[in-house]
């Protein structure tokens, strides 16, 4: 048996209430629209992207409920270790293969197929932890998926790049260092902070979940920087790239659903659709051609629309069948 460590004491945070779910559904999408309408505001938010990514990880771990899985019970070895390992392999290898195949079927040029596959190989975004808590889902499941895929990314991403003939695009050591600074270090910092009394209550953790959504929304606004002129300059070409930019999230969601045997669709949407493509985008730098870089930039639209899709699915699932 593998125990999942949790803070002592405290109660499990109640399921996300309607107001918090509405914030999750609307705020990131509204922030993206604002970033497109006000380019200077998007440019200012883009400067804050690295610290906001780290803050999102910190707040997401702080937002997790106090108790362990199933009222503090241990996880079976298969679920405690095997499931995150399977998720890491599905996201790191299965999703890129699916995205590349779909891009090939659509007739996309080779650099665009490579960009779609690299985006699909990105680890699950750390913001999925706080989003799961805000939606009333079990954030620890997202935490295990994020940790596993993030730990595997420095190995699997360069492997995917090499298999696609772009082996020089990603430097494993640079990628590992950036992952450590943006995800591992804030998560480790959050662990002792969870024991601090002002941050250990249900209200404080619910507040951290809400602040996670705010930080993600500002990040989403920053990812819109520079996209407005491209959308206006070549609407048809950009819409085609946007369709390709949806492939990584679609492939990731399918991969997670397969790993989970079709269960927990909202969790699959968050872990498979909400991906840290920003990390891949930054790590690739100028190694990819302009169109491929634009595709990576456009993945921000489906990525930050993922929380709204998860909230919509949960709302539809609660409706009685007539």
TrEMBL record:
Transmembrane domains' residue ranges: 20-38, 44-64, 85-102, 114-136, 143-167, 179-196, 208-232, 238-259, 268-288, 294-314
Top-level lineage group: Bacteria
The keyword GTP-binding is assigned to this record: no
InterPro entries for the chain: Na+/solute_symporter_sf
Signal peptide positions (record): none
Keywords: Membrane, Transmembrane, Transmembrane helix
Protein name: Na+-dependent transporter
